[in-house]
Amino acid sequence: MEVLKIATAGSVDDGKSTLIGRILYDTKSLTTDKLEAIEKTSKQRGYDYLDFSLATDGLVAEREQGITIDVAHIYFSTKKKSYIIADTPGHVEYTRNMVTGASTSQASIILIDARKGVIEQTNRHFFINNLLRIKDVVVAINKMDLVDYSEEVYNKIKADFSELMSKRDYQDQKITFIPVSALKGDNVVNKTDKMPWYKGEALLEHLEQLDKADIFNVGTPRFPVQYVIRPKTEEFHDYRGYAGKVYGGDLSVGDDIIVLPSKTRSKIKDIYFYDEKYETASRRSSVTITLENDINVSRGDMIVKEGDLPTIDKQFTANVCWMDTNELTPGGKYVVQHGINKVLAKVERINHKINPDYSGFEKGVTGLAINDIASVTFKLNKPIFYDQFKNHRTNGSFIIIDTQSNNTVGAGFIQ
Amino acid sequence: MKKDTSHINSLENEAIYIMREVAAQFEKPVLLFSGGKDSITLVRLAVKAFYPAKVPFPLMHIDTGHNFPETIEFRDRLVKELGLELIVRNVQDSIDEGKVKEESGRYASRNMLQTTTLLDAIEEFKFDACIGGARRDEEKARAKERIFSVRDDFGQWDEKNQRPELFDMLNGEIEHGQNVRVFPISNWTELDVWSYIEKENIEIPSIYFAHKRKVFLRDGMIWSADDEVVYRDDHEEVIEEMVRFRTVGDMSCTAAVLSEASTIDKVVEEIRDSTISERGARIDDKRSEAAMEKRKQQGYF
């Protein structure tokens, strides 16, 4: 069994929370006491149906306004997979939350209201899925019950959306259209008989059959050293282990490696996970590595395979999503956190702003406001070891930290 | 081959990564230990993260004085066996010093009072990171909690102004006086925790397994009949039942469930088939729909 993280995006009234509530209900993931609470509240509000959105909208402010304002995580599992849904809000002012939710997801669901079709917000949702290179995207055309389950409406929306698809720069993305009614449960978990013209799978059926190759980006192995383990006990007197998580590909005992930034060569001697030794450490495992030679390695260094070096540079250009109310301006100084490595950075220039709806670039921009996306060039006080985001999701991304407030104020994807 | 393929392994790898980030990014971290299954799981993950070195931070238990005796006995044995450092701070001391007032009546509990004792202890030891076993699946407000969650000088959670968390990157930058609550098992469900306990063969307090206990019924829930700690009306009759506990909080706010599950595999099976959520047996959440969010804003774990 594996974990699949899914980001959802949709506008305020597209019924996103209802869709998630429906999935939980139909997979019997809602417990009796939660279901009773939903029934009680739905009744109090005078609805003649169950308001499944109550299952996910957690914060008081959201329940009052009836909208989602932050990323909520929802968990459920089937016999085949465990799922984590990052439920993000769809408003323009929440672009940053969408980027956040999508950053940890391998698949995404974009909701479209069948009555409204492709709207400006749909462009933005799809743009973010593209920017973050989500491999599998489901376009769920919702509220089909309100358009008489019309094939014509479905085809029109599909055609409009396909026009957007021609504009994206990540062409390998897999896109699947599914007509659904979250309220009535059509094509969500179970296939409906109300749309015999639709030959595809129900939403959950589609997610169930996705396998690793469909959802994970493969790259070259990168091993940022997180922590140096030196027990200094009698039994482990000379032990010097490098703890970290393997990204992008596998590392094996005997591999010829290079430690960055010193460019010292060595070989992997042992791979430990707790008290057991392994021949290979696969991607995303948190292991401890020992090396053949006694060399000086500390936190922030990176172990890579010989012949597979990342770019080592004090300058880079990246697409940045700005997340703070204070503007990013040329000359501004920040901390860039690239993986576990922190360096001081200066904004060299803003190259251009990117309209997140595929309508083009804006040149001559003097600052970035919250939720803006732009190409920005940074200068660093010491080199980092990076890959392009399109080749390596982990080693090609970073966050920007404000030196005054310590807040995370932006995210970047290296070009 | 050390693989990440199975669900529980990927959660374990994520949690170990978080433990190591805490040790690397903070000067004085502490692991908040309640004696419950979630914090016992955290201890196991910490041991695995730093092996063969010792866990580089102490455990701290905020003792309400109303814990099940089995929990305390278990705690002391665990700490001794693993050679860990344990700090204990008592809610009773906060009461004696007049900092908090004991609740009275039918639903009296010391659960709320823990917050003051906890915040005082954080200040006393100047802890800058507190590792806790909260999970996002437990409760609606917790579903929005970050893995690194910043608390201000008053220990408060500003839920509308949380730092975004992208990819694996954890931003632990804070100002003097602030601290970060860290939740390594954020993405675990109750069933995941139990499956892990089973897989790793981790010892847990006996009250998690079915046993005979003197109890009484109130509001459709089963309460431990301990006259010292749990308030009971005269008409609430004491009976003996086979029960176990799904969460182990304060005796005054933790209800039991009827159960025959006396071994770990039977418990896992029971959780898998259960139709009531874990916190459904926590009376403190039922006070109002927004109970958890309000407590968290005030600095509760």
What does this structure look like?
- The complex is a heterodimer of chains A (415) and B (301).
- Chain A has eight helices and 23 strands.
- With 415 residues, chain A is α+β, with helices and mostly antiparallel strands.
- Chain A folds into three domains: 2-215, P-loop containing nucleotide triphosphate hydrolases (Rossmann fold, 3-Layer(aba) Sandwich); 222-305, Elongation Factor Tu (Ef-tu), domain 3 (Beta Barrel), CATH 2.40.30; 311-414, Elongation Factor Tu (Ef-tu), domain 3.
- In chain A, helix 5 links the parallel strand 4 and strand 5 (136-142).
- The longest helix of chain A is centred in the middle third of the chain and has 15 residues, at 151-165.
- Classes of the chains: A alpha+beta (415), B alpha/beta (301).
- Chains A and B meet through helix 2, helix 3, strand 2, strand 3 and helix 4 of A and helix 1 and helix 2 of B.
Comma- or semicolon-separated keywords:
heterodimer, A: about 425 residues, alpha+beta, Rossmann fold, Elongation Factor Tu (Ef-tu), domain 3, 8-stranded antiparallel beta sheet, 6-stranded mixed beta sheet, 8 helices, about 20% helix, globular, B: about 300 residues, alpha/beta, 2 domains, 4-stranded antiparallel beta sheet, 10 strands, about 30% helix, about 15% strand
Give the gist of this structure.
The complex is a heterodimer of chains A (415) and B (301). Chain A has eight helices and 23 strands. Chain A is α+β, with helices and mostly antiparallel strands and 415 residues long.
CATH class wording of the largest domain in chain A:
Alpha Beta
Which range best describes the helical content of chain B: under 10%, 10-25%, 25-40%, 40-55%, 55-70% or over 70%? 25-40%
Strand fraction of chain A equals 25-35%
Q: What is the total domain count of chain B?
A: 2
* Alpha plus pi helix count of chain B: 8
**Topology as H/E string of chain B?**
HEHEHEHHEEEHEEEEHH
CATH topology of the largest domain in chain A: Rossmann fold
CATH architecture identity of the largest domain in chain B? 3-Layer(aba) Sandwich
* Shape estimate of chain A: globular
Question: Span from first to last CA of chain B?
Answer: 38 Å
Profile the largest sheet of chain B.
6 strands, mixed
How many domains in all of chain A?
3
Instruction: Classify the beta-strand content of chain B into a percent band.
Output: 15-25%
The CATH fourth-level homologous superfamily of the largest domain in chain A: P-loop containing nucleotide triphosphate hydrolases
CATH superfamily of the largest domain in chain B: HUPs
Largest interface (C-beta under 8 Å):
A-B, 80 and 59 residues
CATH class of the largest domain in chain B: Alpha Beta
Distance between the termini of chain A: 34 Å
The tally of helices of chain A reads: 8
**How does the helix and strand content of chain B classify structurally?**
alpha/beta
CATH third-level topology of the largest domain in chain B: Rossmann fold
